[in-house]
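To fix ideas, we quote verbatim one protein's residues and fold tokens.
>
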Amino acid sequence: MTSNGTSVLGPVVVGTDGSATARRAVRWAAREALARGRELRIVLAYGGVDPTLMSEASLWRRYQQGILVRARHDVDEALRAAEEVAPGLVVTDRLVDGPAAPVLLEEAGRGLLVVGERGEADLGEPFAGSVAASCAAHSAGPVVVVRGDVTADDAAPVVVGVDGSPTSAAAVDFAVEAADAAGCPLVAVHTWWDLRIGPDLEPLLDWGAIATSERRILAEQLAGHSAAHPDVAISSVVERTHPSAALEHHARGARLLVVGTRGRGPVAGLLLGSVSRRMVHRSPCPVAVVPPPGGPRHPLGVATRQAADALESTCTPSS
């Protein structure tokens, strides 16, 4: 485990809802679990019906049975998608009655959670872009939003944003481990940008000294990773530009973009909350959002935990 505790332990958890984007996320998660030597857990959160809203108990039972039958079908499709890309991978599944984001966050804990960029479920609450954004914002562990182009090129790199903050250090740890597991190179991107500097001040500044200082920040956060992961080829990029523009540019054709949840400040920081949010919606490839180490668990509340296996007898259609 790395010093910041970002190693992926336990199963890789992926959310599904029966949509094409969710199956895409399942396939990505299955490959990642296989590369990391982890099990895969497929989770579907369905919106059950409050029995007090039904006039008759028998009507509620029939409606609930229909929801569970459809949910089971969608999970079985996800299981087949995982098997197609990762034969032999150990895969488990969970059907949970509750809202999608809290259920997924509870299931993943501090482990790796994978979600699609949006969904189209009809099992109550849609597994939509808002769910992916909520998970990325509130998870105690890393969250990968599978969006953009998913490349099969073995040479495609993992790209990580670096700004010198503790959150950035956790993002670097995760990115190096991801590159090592995939057997691909790592590109570390550091930008610096200060909107307070106008054209009148620019000629008075020692831009060479500033650039040297910024390169030092990047070198400090990469220190030790080459020795710990000798098989990972690490290259660095230092640019004076807006972080979002740099990350979008360098992530084109990448295997994965990794950012922290927030950065070191409103002026010079790379991994600001606004940048991370933008990457969740605009990244040209799958994006991982990594929280700071030791952060609190999500504040969304504990979802209702009603596993479908406890109701297996009620959801089995009569012949």
The CA atoms of residues 207 and 213 lie 10 Å apart.
